[in-house]
Amino acid sequence: MGGEFVLGVNYWARGLGTSMWRRWRREVIESDVKLMKELGINSVRFFILIQDFSNPHAEVREEACAHLREFLKLLKENGIKAYLTLLVGHMSGRNWLIPFEGREGIFSTEFLYNLRKFLNSLIKCVGRDVIKECVSGWVISNELMLYSRPKSRAQYLGFVRAVKDLIKSLDPNKPVGLGDVSDLGTEPPNMAEVADYNAFHLYYYDSDVVRHGLAYAFATELYSLGGKVRVVAEELGFSSAQYSDEEITKFLRVVLTTVLANGASGALIWCFSDFSTEAEPPYLWKPFELSFGLVRSDGSLKPQAYVVREFSKLISELSSRGFLSKFRPIKDSVVITYPAFTYRDDIEFISYDYSVIMSALLESYVALKTAGVNPLVLPEEYLSRYGSVKVVLAPSIPTMLSTTWRWFISYVESGGVLYYSFAKYPTWLHEAPTHLWSELFGVVPNLPAGSVGTEAPTEVFINYGKYREVIKVPRRGFKAISYLFKPIKSEVVGRDSSGTPQVFINRLGNGYAVLTSFPIEALSYDRYSRDSWRVEVRKLYSLVMKLANVRSYVSIEGGEDSIEVVPWGGSDEALLFIINHSVSNTEFKVLLSKGVRRYEVIHSLGNVTHEPSNDSLRVRTEGRSASVIYIEHP
Predict the structure, then answer these.
(1) How many helices (H) and strands (E) does the chain have?
(2) pTM for the complete prediction?
(3) pLDDT tens profile 512-533
């Protein structure tokens, strides 16, 4: 997927759902396609239910091919790009038969042989010219992991690479994506090795509405690998059976804007329409799957559809003025890193829940974003490839590669600032994060041998030069375990109420290594609580940014810990994407390091007003709204 921003939907025919191919109704489908065009939708991801197209001998059904040909031509005639999803074993809460799977399962050579036969026959039956002209890209599967779980990352990656090679041999010039959930083998570095773009499916739930919205920004950044890989938010959305249409509308306003602002190449909403197939599987036992649509099953528009139409106008405006081609997001010189054991198959005997690690990273990311800092998110093995950055944050990570810790020493000596918050998790106590405590952080562990660890302090008093803060730390028991250290050459800059050292700064060469003995990011994250501890996390990060002399392109005053500002631009001009992720009306000030000579409101989603001054914008915005501003600097 490349070129224009992909504003799309996942598609089954209105009212028909997964029975679309066997109960073909051209008049309904043609009406759907025309309505998509009216709403400004430029792309469709759709699905071949193989049991409707084939038999156990991998032979194609000509009637189904005729329907597919007709559908592809309808999309082409209406200027809508078609992304064909090939292997649909799982869909909407049901696993569907793949007739030619064979006795050895889908990861077998038998299945690949049958798939080659089927795909050759399908393309021939539909028409090679039709496929060439009407299919814009291929998606290997829909959430294959939920249909059949591989034995290892290597098995999964070998399989999808073989399927991609098969598709490319028959349709060589089209992008191929995976279409899978986040699981074994689909982590960002692995996906980038086998797919033409990275994509994520995210149906995220969180009582903290600000963190909820920014989770989609985080996923975009995570999967982009420092902006080096194209990213598509391939599935996002909620059902009208879960939340009101008004609330889903507000969700779409901020989430579509934040994935665009943070550099995504596209977003595909789940899904185009509601269905009326109550008695059919999977809707029989998954009633909420009936009402994810932008459009009701009778063809009338939900409020969500009007947001998509408005967002398409924003995309058109940005494209017509060349902003999407000449501007890119401006990132600060700050990296959040995560460990190799989350994505490598060859790292053994490390047992941590991937979601726990990512939750701490998300908390770190949100704390930075709501302070006006736009960080990168990189795997530890990418740090040395990326180039110089001022700050590396390793938040609440239980262990990393020995070679990474050694690299950190040279990084700090060369003038970088490393922040590490110690974390141990109950699932794996037989561990230590690093072997270089004294060399890197200037400390030694200070607990009796065999100790599990300790609970985090409730308060830490920071005293470093002119920087004074009291950091409150949430008590979560042993959800994440803290530790105690003794300084040997580092400076203690934070102590708890009993005087016990908790925060250390070690000057090493031209830089600094900062250690906290408690995993504040992991402790702060609790999706079931509306209490936010981000302000406390930011107090630590503020100290780190001061050490590194990080000056962000923008900073935020006010906003109740809920505002995201993403700058795009060049030397003399910029775009600002301004997003209020809270549900409340909010007033705040956006300070620009380069000042403001002239500004122009490109588009607003929701009720937003702006008042410029020489170096800032005062913004008033309703809850869950967004705007895009053009700025000329003096």
Answers:
(1) 16, 29
(2) 0.97
(3) 999 999 999 999 999 999 888 9
